[in-house]
Amino acid sequence: MAVSDAAPIISTRFGLSDGHTLDGYRRTGGYTALPKALGMGPDAVLDEVKAAVVQGRGGAGFPAGAKWSFLPKDIFPRYFVVNGDESEPGTCKDRPLMEHDPHQLIEGLVISCFAVRAAQAFIYVRGEMALAQERIALALNEAYAAGLVGRDILGSGWSLDIVLHWGAGAYIVGEETALIESLEGQRGMPRLKPPFFPAAKGLYLQPTVVNNVETLSNIPWIITNGGAAFAALGTEKAPGMRLFALSGHVRRPGVYEVEMGTTTYRDLVEAPVYGGGMRHGNALKAFIPGGGSAPWFYPEQLDLPLDASVIGPAGSMMGSGAVVIMDETTCAVRAAWRLVRFFAHESCGKCTPCREGGAWLEKVLRRILDGHGREDDLELLLDVGDNISPGPFPRPAFGGEDAVAFPYKQTTICPLGPSAVSPVYSSILRFRDEYLRHIKDGGCASHRSGDLAAEVVGNPTSPAAKRGPGGDG
Amino acid sequence: MSRLTPENVELARTIIGRYPRSRSALIPLLHVAQEQDGWVSPDGMEHIAELLGLTPSEVLGTASFYGMFKRQPVGRYVVSVCTNISCILLGGEELLEHCEERLGIKAGATTADGTFTLDDVECIAACSDAPCLQVNYRYFLNVTHDQVDALFDDLRAGRRGDEIPPHGTLTRVRQQVAAERWSGHGGDELVVPPGQVR
Predict the structure, then answer these.
(1) Total CB pairs under 8 A between chain A and B
(2) Which residue of B has its CA nearest to A469?
(3) Residue B195, pLDDT above cutoff 80
(4) Which of A95, A138, A456 sits opposite B94 (nearest CB)?
(5) Which residues of A touch B53 (CB under 8 A)?
(6) Cβ of B194 and A117 within 8 Å?
(7) Is the pTM above the cut of 0.90?
(8) What is the 3-state secondary structure (H, E, C) of chain A?
(9) Hey, where are the domains in chain B?
């Protein structure tokens, strides 16, 4: 494996000062794909996107073109919704796309709506992203005034309205049916399945496509260069380029657009153009390969390629493309607790196993970190986890004969509950001794709870923190 | 506190008009109320219920689900420090502690003078620029403790108002569509029959 020299597709304007304006976008080749698509006709556009195989960049990885073709024929109105509610821990790639290149997203959206014959679209931006909201509002105003959105687009006779909508602080709204509920003015709770796709019944129970920001940002390039050119990048199972948000203990954290399939996690961490190696030359302890929901990987999995078809069977997921690197100074128990605290906090409360189980996991982990852990707490954690994510957890990394293909089973409507279990399983199975040291000795090498958080997780140079693990306000 | 001003009622009507079903405007209208008052008041929610033909409890039911809607007054500047995984790996917890010390309050509290509210928040999507925080949802990335001190001093002294509007104001650019450009066909049936495009 090697670092690819393929040119970036969607991050080309990140460094420009005016890439977010209509002038800047046009000067750099923007809005040339839209007239081409209008000339091709909807079916040809759909075929092109299908040929490209744009695996969904939100987390589930479902190819965009295939998703679109689930729309029932001849049922109107139908809606298109952009999921810009990026909140998965570790993920920070949709935000720069919305802030630095909103016109690319709008052009991709207009072309996509044309392909599926939708007459109204909504861009749902995360509430906490004020700049992204401003940039998209500005871009939409420009695009409407220039005849690129709205009535009779570029004289084609085809019309599309786009509404900028934003949320108000709820991770769960990133789940597509919860996002639709939120867009209807409801509490953002996921809907019962089936139907499994909003294509059947979505917004206002009409056929609806929900696509991620990054997914749609690829569409203009695909129309300009052809679906085959996109599919030729990467590998057959992992086509195209993708943004990866690299964070944690590397020298050069950042958002990098890399070729899928041919690039490995080791490349991401070590290549000078990406992570540049581990910070302070420390050893890698574990890494999260696809956002906070993903089961952890360990040094022996560094050579896996960025390919969902490989990562899934290996026991985790590429998810949202967020890679969090944890070095040897990291306290695994504390890292797991912090992720579980997140999922417990963000549970919408609809399903009992997640609502009660997530909070329970958090309490037990906090108790262990506070130095009050009990001998049977590990079994308790696994048992509570099993009630949210039943059955054998995929752990081929441990040579277990009970390894099953990802994703795991769930007793909940959406995957949030099981996501809380990922860090628990990942840390117990690999770092059981660390848990035992916390329980028996009140702390581990990188974190002793007697001398509370003498080292905050992963930061060996930090001054003694007065804040205990329970002191999150 | 107060109901929506006449200007905001007009804005609310414009927003409602963009959605095929009026209830979809609920979250945007709650943001309008929060922008007006700095928080979402019971009177504001009742007014929104009237505008949308909902009951006040339906409005409260939605508002209470979303963490950004403050149903009690908060500081002029809401400081949100991320302590999720990528940030605590690089000092997010110490950053929060530093803010607590500088402001003299614990996370979740508001300073006595009503200038600052401090929050310990979940991932704010700036993970490769950890540690990070937001003030009224404007980002400060790779922040050092010294930078935080300077920022707080500036805000106390009333500087940086251009950069950071008071709490409640998110986007300072509103979506504006000229009437003749708005298609308005989103709610119609069979507005785009196959083959319409010429």
Answers:
(1) 265
(2) B93
(3) no
(4) A456
(5) none
(6) yes
(7) yes
(8) CCCCCCCCCCCCCCCCCCCCCHHHHHHCCCCCHHHHHHHHCHHHHHHHHHHHCCECCCCCCCEHHHHHCCCCCCCCCCEEEEEECCCCCCCCCHHHHHHHCHHHHHHHHHHHHHHHCCCEEEEEECCCCHHHHHHHHHHHHHHHHCCCCECCHHHCCCCEEEEEEECCCCHHHHCHHHHHHHHCCCCCCCCCCCCCCCCCCCHHHCCEEEEEHHHHHCHHHHHHHCHHHHHHCECCCCECEEEEEEEECECCCEEEEEECCCCEHHHHHHCCCCCCCEHHHCCEEEEECCCCCCCCECHHHCCCECCHHHHCCCCCCCCCCEEEEEECCCCHHHHHHHHHHHHHHHCCCCCHHHHHHHHHHHHHHHHHHCCCCCCCHHHHHHHHHHHHCCCCCCCHHHCCCCCCCCCCCCCCCCCHHHHHHHHHHHHHHHHHHHHHHHHHHCEECCEECCCCCCCCCCCCCCCCCCCCCCCCC
(9) 6-63, 77-156
Q: Does B77 touch chain A (CB under 8 A)?
A: no
Fold held by B77-156 = Glutaredoxin (3.40.30)
* Facing B85 at nearest CB: one of A95, A163, A335: A335
Residue B24 contacts A, CB cutoff 8 Å: yes
B91 close contact with A: CB closer than 8 A: yes
ipTM for the predicted complex comes to: 0.95
| Contacting residues of A for B19, CB less than 8 Å apart | 163
pLDDT digits (tens, 9 = 90+) for A373-389: 998 999 999 989 988 98
List of domains in chain A? 22-231 (3.40.50.11540), 233-327 (3.10.20.600), 332-448 (1.20.1440.230)
Give the nearest partner residue to A473 out of B107, B122, B193, using CB atoms: B107
CATH homologous superfamily, domain B6-63: NADH-quinone oxidoreductase subunit E (1.10.10.1590)
- Contact residues on chain A for B93, CB-CB shorter than 8 A: 453, 456-457, 465, 467
pLDDT of residue A343: 98
Question: Which residues in chain B are contacts of A207 at CB distance < 8 A?
Answer: none
